[in-house]
Design brief:
7-stranded parallel β-sheet; about 45% helix; globular
C-alpha cells in the first residue's frame, strides 16, 4: 500500500530508542523527512545515522518514487519551551510547518501515590499532557491551512486499563486523552487534519523493563516471576516489538487513514479484556 506521505515532514519525539524510534523507522521507510528529538545526544545521533541509512535503502527500492529522505537530529528536552524552539528552528527543517507530529515523552516514574508530592504531579502533567498540547497548538493550524495533517500521540494502554504503580502516567495521559477527544472533532476535522492516540501495551522497551522492575520491588517477587506473569496475561504470548508499533503509527499518519480521527488505538497483543 502506498501511504501517500513520501516527501512530507514529520516531527518525532523521544526518537532515540524504543517506540519513538520504531515510529521514526517506519516513517523514514515511507520516504518521510524527519526531525527527531531526544534529550541524550549520543543515542540520538546513533539513531539518526541508522535512520539515514534506512532512508537511503528505502529510496533505492525499485518502484519507489521518492528521493532520499532527510533526517535532522535535535538533542533537546521537548518538554521545555527551549526544546520545542530548537525542534522548530533546526536548520534545514520545516519550521513549524510539519505535516506529521508524533508526540512522545518518557513516562513518569512508577511508585505509590502516597509518595508523590505536587512537584511530581506537575512534572508528569507537563511532560505527558501539556507538552503534547503545546506541540498540537504550534502545528495544527498550519496543517489545516495546507489541507493535510496527522498528529499521533503515544500514550499508554493504562489510559483504558489503569495500572496501580503508574498513577502519575494514568492521570496525566488521561487528561491528554480527554483534550484530544474534543479538539480532534473541532473545525480542523473537515480540513484534512486528524489527531489520534496510539496506546501501547507491553512492548519490549526500556520503559517496560523499568515497570517490571518496579512491580517486582513493590510486590517482593522476583523479576523472573513478574515477567512470567506479565507474559501470561498477554494472549499473543509475547511482548510487542517497537517496529510493529511503528508500522501502526505510520498507517495512522497516512493518506488512506484520513477517516480515522479522535480515536484511541490500542496495541497490546489482546491483553485488554473489554469490548469497548
Amino acid at each position: 500500500m502506498d501511504l501517500g506521505i513520501a516527501g512530507k515532514w514529520a516531527l518525532v519525539c523521544g526518537a532515540s530508542k524504543g517506540l519513538g524510534l520504531g515510529c521514526a523507522q517506519a516513517l523514514v521507510g515511507e520516504g518521510v523527512n524527519l526531525v527527531i528529538v531526544a534529550r541524550s545526544a549520543e543515542p540520538l545521533h546513533a539513531a539518526a545515522a541508522q535512520l539515514i541509512a534506512a532512508g537511503a535503502d528505502a529510496s533505492s527500492v525499485i518502484g519507489q518514487k521518492h528521493a532520499k529522505p532527510q533526517v535532522l537530529a535535535v538533542a533537546a528536552d521537548i518538554t521545555t519551551p527551549e526544546g520545542r524552539a530548537a525542534a522548530f528552528g533546526v536548520a534545514g527543517g520545516p519550521g513549524r510547518d510539519f505535516d506529521i507530529v508524533v508526540t512522545n515523552a518518557g513516562g513518569p516514574p512508577t511508585g505509590d501515590f502516597r509518595d508523590w508530592d505536587r512537584d511530581a504531579w506537575i512534572k508528569a502533567v507537563d511532560a505527558n499532557m501539556l507538552t503534547p498540547i503545546e506541540l498540537i497548538r504550534a502545528t495544527v493550524d498550519g496543517m489545516a491551512a495546507r489541507g493535510f495533517g496527522r498528529i499521533v500521540n503515544i500514550t499508554s494502554s493504562a489510559v483504558k486499563a489503569p495500572i496501580d504503580i503508574l498513577g502519575l502516567s494514568n492521570g496525566a495521559r488521561s487528561g491528554l486523552t480527554g483534550f484530544v477527544a474534543g479538539v480532534a472533532r473541532g473545525s480542523i476535522a473537515a480540513r484534512g487534519v486528524t489527531i489520534n492516540n496510539l496506546l501501547p501495551g507491553k512492548f519490549d522497551t526500556d520503559r517496560l523493563a523499568a515497570t517490571l522492575q518496579g512491580t517486582a520491588s513493590n510486590t517482593g517477587k522476583s523479576l523472573e516471576d513478574v515477567c512470567r506473569a506479565q507474559l501470561a496475561a498477554v494472549p499473543a504470548g509475547r511482548f510487542g516489538q517497537p517496529q510493529e508499533f511503528g508500522a501502526i503509527c505510520a498507517f495512522l499518519c497516512s493518506v488512506p487513514a484520513g477517516y480515522i480521527n479522535g480515536q484511541n488505538i490500542l496495541a497490546d497483543g489482546g491483553a485488554y479484556p473489554g469490548t469497548f
